[in-house]
Write a structure and sequence with these properties.
The protein is an alpha/beta fold and 357 residues long. It has 12 helices and 12 strands. The chain has helices at residues 21-28, 46-55, 95-113, 127-132, 140-148, 181-197, 224-238, 249-252, 255-258, 269-279, 315-339, 349-356; strands at 9-13, 39-44, 62-65, 76-80, 119-122, 153-157, 162-165, 205-209, 242-247, 263-266, 285-289, 294-298. A 12-stranded mixed β-sheet has the order 3-4-2-1-5-12-11-6-7-10-8-9, with helices on both faces. Strand 1 (9-13), helix 1 (21-28) and strand 2 form a beta-alpha-beta unit. Helix 6 packs across helix 7. The radius of gyration is 23 Å and the shape is globular. The two termini are 44 Å apart. The relative contact order is 0.15.
Amino acid sequence: MSSKHHKIRVGISVGDFNGIGPEIIMKSLKDKSITDFFTPIIFASGKLFTYQKNVFKMQLNFNYIDDVKDAVNGKINMVNLWKENVTINFGTPTEESTKMAIDSLEAATEALLNNDIDILVTAPINKDEMLKQGFKHAGHTGYLEEKMDKKGVMFLVTEDLKVAVSTHHIPVSEVAQNISKETIKKQIKIINQTLIEDFCIERPKIAVLGLNPHAGDGGAIGKEEIEIITPAIQELFENGILTFGPYPADSFFQPGNYKKFDAVLAMYHDQGLTPFKTIAYEDGVNFTAGLPFIRTSPDHGVAYDIAGENTADEKSFSEAIFTGIKIFNNRTEYRELRENRLVVKKQSPENRYREER
């Protein structure tokens, strides 16, 4: 359904409730006018949020529902997945908090796939604890890729800086064997399309970082740039995608460099996320590009060290919500424009003469 015809429904998964998830969710929704912009739907536990809103002294009212389809515009809706009492142990992951994180994510994703929500915003999870409880993926991205049967790209975004990573949550020792020319080409095509469709950039320019120090230094410090990355860049450029590099990662993230491009593809997690989080502190949003549905999250983790202290900053989570809404609107408009394009018919000289007469 077009965003012009209904208020956007933002589904929120709770993450690990012994971290800062519920705190930043509630802080992001505390403004009474927030429901004028969208309809929040949290997948969690009424008892959990009642307790935590008292801990953090927040004046929030929830509309408790059993089915996402019963969500009401103008209210902060909560799909009450757990009706039992919950034990909160701030700063320490437990079997109970991990189980709710999994249940919340699964229920919210199901709602997304059924078009009961328009956007999914995920609060931070503890990946290690979820794996111990049988969750099969080292993060949200892999889980959503499996559910949607499509490959995505981890894309960290702000207004001025957008960084994707070629490999996600894998050991550094496995990075080289997990990059290939074809994979890089597919990822850059996804990045190019999302910049056009989701961020309204007509002719994106994409920079690609090298894998090795000094981008391999002409092969003296590794061959991946010569054998994999450069051929991928050249093929894409020849096919009309404005791709440049590979650039040495150690010197790339200077304002005079990265601001010349609309996005950057890093080869591995820390190569891209370390400079991103340094430059875009508090403003960054994690967006899974390339999927048929929109998912965003804050660019930080569970923060057990400050859980329960009422000091967590909700700015990145708020940015995740409004970035998701902006992407939804841009994507909807892009698709509607493509569907409604006028087909200009060629006129014969005789018909054009008659019209002019």
